[in-house]
Amino acid sequence: MMELATSLPYRQSTLLRLDGEGALHYQVYKALRAEILSGNPPHGGRLPSTRALALESGISRMTIQTAYEQLLAEGYAVGRHGSGTYVAGPTDAPAPAMRLGGTAPLPRLGAVAARAAAAPRVSRLGRRVFDDVTPLLSSRGHGRPRPRWDFRHGLIDMRDFPHATWRRELARQARRSEIAAHDYPPAQGSLLLREAIAAYLRRSRGLRCAAEHLVVVNGSQQGLDVTARLLLDPGASALVEDPGYEGARSAFQLAGARVIPVPVDEHGLDPARIPRAARRARLAHVTPSHQYPLGGVMPLARRQALLAWAAHHDAYVVEDDYDGEFRFEGHPVAPLKVLDDAARVLFIGTFSKVMFPALRLGYVVVPPPLVRAFARVKALGDGGTPVLEQEALAAFIASGAFERHLRRARAQHAARRAALLGALREELGERAEVVGTNAGLHVLLRLRGWTPARVEALARRAYAANVGVYPATPYYAAAPREGSLVLGYAGLTPAEIRAGIRALRDVLR
Prior knowledge:
Elements: E1 2-8, E2 11-18, H1 24-37, H2 50-57, H3 61-73, E3 77-80, E4 84-87, H4 109-118, H5 124-131, E5 149-150, H6 163-176, H7 191-205, E6 214-217, H8 220-231, E7 237-242, H9 246-254, E8 258-265, E9 268-269, E10 283-286, H10 300-312, E11 316-321, E12 345-350, E13 362-365, H11 371-382, H12 387-398, H13 401-427, E14 432-435, E15 442-447, H14 452-464, E16 467-468, E17 470-471, E18 484-488, H15 494-508
Parallel strand pairs: 5-16, 7-8, 7-10, 10-11, 11-12
Antiparallel strand pairs: 1-2, 3-4, 6-13, 8-9, 12-13, 14-15, 15-18, 17-18
Helix pairs in contact: 1-3, 2-3, 6-12, 7-12, 8-9, 8-11, 13-15
């Protein structure tokens, strides 16, 4: 920090503290602003003339004058013709960071910031973020460096993706875009993309829907957030799978809902186990094609019972199809939505797993009566999803490149799955049980006789050994009796998977 002696009228031999960051006039402005905010001089006090400050500091008068002009423009100071420049007072134009009701300056900013950090004043929703909402522990990186062998679910190997084809499509759409495309995007999303998604869902999943029933969202998490804000009043009940996706639980809690866990088994959520007190819940979140994280598939009888519950209680079912594209035995499971004759299912899909996470594009097939309101709530939150990426993705799907990439990705993930299952069998043997292996991009690894606390300690030791494994505890409403790990494998090559499991074996020893 550079200090220059000045002779200010309100304090003799004051130091003008320059921090060395930015242009010189900006440093002078910041130094003077800091003095004003500290109360030196007080409101109405006179600042030195630009000539006097230039002579005392050795800085050119033009530089000083530019700094003064910034103080005047921002309302920290006022100029009085023929008299000089003064610190703005209560009757002058408002100063941004000063009290207007009296002559006392604000406390020093450091003290204000310390108080705010200790006890921030936030809304009820904000307090829920601090107190209630489960963090996305399993699907984020926790701010730590990624280990060499990272089995975090949600990672994918970007070396699989046809980057050159995608870049060409982006460039082509950018060249073709009209001036109108630079305006705010449609709230419901690009019509081209919605038509492409609707046609793809009809071909691949047997889901008959029209473009007007789709809303494009910025990833499936936004789909959950908009659903919660549209359907849940504070205090309303929402059913979630237990264990289940913590991102859904967090979105509903953030909306002020009372989240009620419903136990799942190897066949997913059982509607017969919905608590009697929760029968009038507003919605239920389910992952019927590949239960997260246990991996089960909901059978037809349970699907029909869940739809009957929703129709009877005027509720909705949120079907989260987070990785339904990846099934390694037989065809992808038909969505629950195909049985939805009563318009009670919101079907959420995402391109994060089949394209790449940073694309931030997903979609919701919305019951017709809710489409307009759903799109409006979404637009109020973000103003619309960027059009260029939407229309590039529409062309990518329409050209057949998307489904070609998906076929290759299925084959590559099948090889990764085989490598993981083989390595677990070879390295861990009878010490572990693998659950949910026939679909998706993760498995659940139960360690026989291990408590959740012991598994969490194992995860910490594994991280120190450069292996990322993640306890399943955050997915449960209450700590389970037995400890287990969720192992995602889409971000590693088969060789890396085998090496990572060998390293995990060494940690276990």
